[in-house]
Amino acid sequence: MNTPASQVTTTQLPSSQILTAPLTKLQQPVKTKQDKKSLNYIVRTFIAGGIAGCAAKTVVAPMDRVKILFQSSNPHFEKYSGTFWGIFLAGKDIYQGAGMRGLFQGHMATLLRIFPYAAIKFVAYEQFKNLIVHSKAGETPGKHFIAGSLAGISSVFCTYPLELIRVRMAYEVPHNGKGPGVYETFKHILGEGKSNAKGKINLGNLYRGFTLTILGVIPYAGVSFWTHSLMQDLIRKHFPLQTLGNPESDRKPRLKAIPELISGGIAGAVAQTVSYPIEVTRRRVQVRGAINPENNRASAKEVVKEIYRSKGFRGFFVGLSIGYLKVTPLFAVSFYTYERLKWILDI
């Protein structure tokens, strides 16, 4: 039965707003907010963080090797430390003795460690940030510092033995152009100790210098994320043309390549300055077994006294110029790669 036209109400007729609305708006799907606790989100963050860490470490691997040699006062390379050209002279010495392979000695151990380290760090950072930041307005640099510090502690705890193996491999000066392998270094560390019986392993050796690492990673990771967030906010506020596109309702606009690299580089330099004395002390503790395998135990206090006695206050900043040369591109590439992969993987 048809309804008479006189009985048709205006609510039954299509509104003029719907009739005149652009077809593209009617067809545009509503984007749901991502579940940051989901396995899918965590896996994508893990992949992005791991790739970012490997890319950054590969760029700075030769400088990283030289810095470790300087920090740990390797007697063969101590003559080069403390001068501007020292890094280049040391690099030349390594290249002449072992070729390009020498500059990347220990790099495989670095990649084995850095992929899970960076992956866990960024996953933990996103999860901790999600817990303490509930809106875009509440996303302050201070909360980034807290999330970054907790993320750094989480990643260090999971990957510290691989870090120790890497440092020891980088410290050793190879004979006949060939340095120790990962497994050889691993076995040697486990067997170190004055009262060690033949065949006995000391698992505690794999966490030598761990306390110092935790003390150092809090300012290092926390300050890096804090500074990076602060620099991004300053660029968004004062240089809006350096951002890309319109932000989504729950996201801040992304930065263009150059400002993103600058933000990451400055974050690395600031974090390095704040945490460097702890890092120098930690390196000396880590290589103790290589210097004296029979007496591989030394407290942080003893190492601090030893550094101050031999080189004074400047001893805690040995290799810092190399640290800047290394950490600035390291963090620039790391944050840049991570931010771009977040874009690609829709994180």
Summarize the structure.
With 347 residues, the chain is an all-alpha fold. Helix content is 65%, strand content 1%.
Written account of the structure:
- Keywords: Membrane, Mitochondrion, Mitochondrion inner membrane, Repeat, Transmembrane, Transmembrane helix, Transport.
- The protein has helices spanning 16-20, 23-27, 39-71, 86-103, 107-132, 141-171, 182-190, 210-238, 257-286, 288-291, 300-311, 320-344, and strands at 243-244, 254-255.
- The protein is mostly helical and 347 residues long.
- It has a two-stranded antiparallel sheet with strand order 1-2.
- The protein is globular, with a radius of gyration of 26 Å.
Overall, the morphology is globular
Largest sheet: 2 strands, antiparallel
Tell me the radius of gyration: 26 Å
Strand order of the largest sheet: 1-2
Strand content: under 5%
Number of helices: 12
Percent in helix: 55-70%
How many individual β-strands?
2
Q: What's the pLDDT, averaged over the residues?
A: 80
Report the span from N to C terminus. Answer: 55 Å
What structural class is derived from the secondary structure elements? mainly alpha
Give me the strand/helix succession: HHHHHHHHEEHHHH
